[in-house]
Amino acid sequence: MFADRIALCLNFCPKTIYQGALTALLKPNFTSVIALILIISTSGCTKSSLAANTRNAFINNPFSFTILKNYSDDYNSIGTVVTSSSTCPLEKENIADPAFCFLRTVTYDGLTVNMFSFDVLQGGTAEYLVTNDRVRLTNGITTGSTKKELIKKMGKPYKIQDDNYIWKSADLNNYLVFTVENELVTKIRWHEERQPEYKGIIVWKTQYE
User: Fold this and answer.
1) pLDDT (0 to 100) of residue 34
2) Cα(187)–Cα(22) distance, rounded to whole angstroms?
3) Quick one: which H or E segment has residue 124?
4) What is the pLDDT of residue 127?
5) Please, are residues 190 and 176 in contact by the beta-carbon 8 Å criterion?
6) Contacting residues for 183 by C-beta, under 8 A, at least 6 apart
7) Is this structure's pTM higher than 0.85?
8) Taking the CB of residue 198, how many other CB atoms lie within 10 A of it?
9) What is d(CA 3, CA 68) in angstroms, rounded to the nearest whole number?
10) How far apart are CA 35 and CA 40, in angstroms?
11) Helix segments in the chain, DSSP class H
């Protein structure tokens, strides 16, 4: 246990803390060992912080592929595209640049990607919808997984709203939402916190308030 805490501290604690840990290990004496115990016990570098970091990383990208969010990205890199369609609202305003065709939907077997990338300065945003068990998250969860298995893998949700069990990453504010019906996961949705709008019209909702 003590060795595990030292390893965690060396990996995740601030430099001043792990320098103290090294000193205590290389030049052990009663005072330095007691100081090391106090540092480790009060620094917050525990397995729970490691678990939180791992959970954030998973929520930020729970898929086995890179999340794409821009109109011109290569969506064939995700898998075999079944359909791909786009909407170009600015065509009515006589803007010919195809970059302004900023709404795109790409479908795969078990996955739908909706993309909005008109805000080119900040990059695009997207939502990913898992619709059947042909797409499995990297932790093994897919549609058809039980609620018990979901909670065991994900821990306590950030929020529960109706049939939606919602997790949110603490660093990038990305969302991973599982719709649970009759104790089974029926849909999985990943998206960013940003809510895309065009001329006051919400393209898709990202708020759970």
Assistant:
1) 56
2) 48
3) none
4) 95
5) yes
6) 146, 147, 148
7) no
8) 15
9) 41
10) 9
11) 2-12, 15-26, 30-42, 47-60, 147-154
Nearest alpha-carbon partner for 110 in 149, 66, 144, 60: 144
Closest C-alpha to 46, from 89, 7, 85: 7
The token pair that represents 117 in the structure block: 């990338």
Residue among 75, 73, 105, 76 at smallest CA distance from 88: 105
**Neighbour count for residue 107 (Cβ, 10 Å):** 17
Which two tokens mark 43? 């620094």
b (16+ CB within 10 A) / e for 27-46: eeeeebeeebeebbeebebb
Q: What is the pLDDT of residues 118-177, one digit of tens each?
A: 655 557 889 999 999 999 999 999 999 999 999 999 999 999 999 999 999 999 999 999
- Listed as ranges, residues in the chain with pLDDT below 50 are 1-18, 21-22, 24-25, 38, 99
Please name the residues in contact with 204: beta carbons below 8 A apart, sequence gap of 6 or more. 114, 116, 127, 191, 195, 196
Measured CA to CA, the distance from residue 143 to residue 192 in angstroms comes to: 21
